């Protein structure tokens, strides 16, 4: 099995340029600029991310073994990637044994063709769909439409997005950029036979969607879903959801077609005990989501009698070939990193131009689809759509070190591109860029500094080589620094380089206080660095500030709660 | 080359191009927990209530009475039951009881006012009920299409935490995890109960079974 290639292994290809939904039309700063002017969007997003953040912190804090679950989750995913060839074949074998059919797709175009053919073979010209990032990524709905097949999104938010001919803006709550008034207008315009008197009470809007979709659930013969997990050991697929539309789609039609990225496989059924704890608590901040469905092939007399699993590459193997970038494949799409990201909160999901927004999108999108220097690719701007504050790393249930990945991608981007102003700026930061672990470690130390600080909020110094970080420094971080200014980040990069060099040069140097900059964007020792805690505008989320850090004792008792 | 060979070849190439980090999975998290009956019950009820499920606890000899009360209160005149459900559970109910059969088209289940089923396993810590399609639970459509689900849970089947519950499952069975009634927060994050799944979930816990 290990001898399929002769000689040198070839670098796997990215998702083909110009296909699917892994690339926006404009670079991030330009796209974000417009979104920033949208007050409604910012208010909605701010409220959403704050709310979910709070709930997540509550339910993760209540598990004494949360950190140990994260360690297990992270290791299971790394182990999965190490053994991907055998696990995929095992999954295939088990699904087949239980009456399912497995298909392989090199890229989104191929997956779209497979699904289209499978739908056509059933004789149906419509499908019901469960919210699925993979099918969004490959543009399945658009493709089906072009072949005369109507796809009905059944998740409420996805339905809103679809009826408005819009794009999702959040992994978990894709229509978060819409308020209730807008949703009422969308329903009144697009749902056939809807009550013209429909008001904007969320329960009434949900009831209208229920009535509209009920008939589709009862009559449509084909469903298309994604999958949260696929268990190699048993061939069991799983979908995690809230509304029951997933159960409807996975249960009522005759034929079920599931499109799953190859990285979603898990080795053992037992691994669910970890992910069924990590995912809901990180995602919606619930102890458990209302519904999770698990099925293995076909069960006579219960559910779809025809089951197809489409295993999708579409750039995943290219990401896997990148020693640093492959960690992005460990993502379980909980969206916790979005909800803690100061950049996402301001810019919104659309600015990323990809199915995958936020911190994870900024690393996963370029990994899957590449950053084509010659084409002035909008994706090349994504690794810069971050302040590298590290909040995403701390929130991530599988401990993906997103800041390090971003720094690595910035490095790759500057390597690829020609000599531009950007390149020169980045070259200046090469020292840091080449040592992402050092840089992140420095950040973590800075974050930890706030935690270890005494009552008066002061810490005396950090150990070398980070001592330079704790020096009093003059940072050009004016109070009203604009989004675009810090986004451009050349300044920040130079600052980082200087700090890292100093840190390495001056071991043992006593320093002062560290904290986020005044506007909560730069994580660097600021002029007003006496202050410990969030930036002055109160929006900055950083390690430690909202209680995410494990306090001593939380993780070392085995007792049950309650 | 088939797509299968190509994708598997790419995966192997990728792993050859970048070294695989050594890893052993640390399973230091809590497993194998047990809790005394009283604590397990209290925890489970607390979590179910938090999801706004309706909870009724009783001893086995009173279960039929409790179920009849619930169905009457909900105005359910026509309820479905899986073929393997102990019919004694409906002894106190005076409405129409229809036994499910996989030949009945799922849309016809919409005619039912509610459904009464058993359950396979539950998890106290998360307030989750696991159905696995056994004879007392029936096919998945049965507990999905009707708007009211009355679910009977035996305290002995309630595990303390998620690992303890997952360990009791049979992987190959079609399994549904239910944690409260269906809900959405898609509109301005305001929680709305009852979208597509049953809008009402009544859990009858038999404390001495
Ligand atoms: S990167 Fe981590 S935090 Fe972000 S969506 Fe993925 S699993 Fe969740």
UniProtKB/TrEMBL annotation, chain A:
Residues 322-343 form the 4Fe-4S ferredoxin-type domain. Residues 1-24, 496-562 are annotated as: Disordered. Coiled coil: none annotated. SUPFAM superfamilies: 4Fe-4S ferredoxins, NagB/RpiA/CoA transferase-like. Keywords: 4Fe-4S, Electron transport, Iron, Iron-sulfur, Metal-binding, Repeat, Transport. It comes from the Bacteria. InterPro entries: 4Fe4S_Fe-S-bd, 4Fe4S_Fe_S_CS, FTHF_cligase-like_sf, Helical_ferredxn, LUD_dom, LutB/LldF, LutB_C, NagB/RpiA_transferase-like. Pfam families: Fer4_8 (PF13183), LUD_dom (PF02589), LutB_C (PF11870). Residues 498-512, 537-554 have a biased composition (Basic and acidic residues). PANTHER family: LACTATE UTILIZATION PROTEIN B. This is LutB/LldF family L-lactate oxidation iron-sulfur protein. It comes from Streptomyces solicavernae.
Automatic annotation (TrEMBL), chain B:
It holds the Pfam family LUD_dom. Gene3D superfamilies: NagB/RpiA/CoA transferase-like. Residues 42-205 form the LUD domain. SUPFAM superfamilies: NagB/RpiA/CoA transferase-like (SSF100950). This is LUD domain-containing protein. It comes from Streptomyces solicavernae.
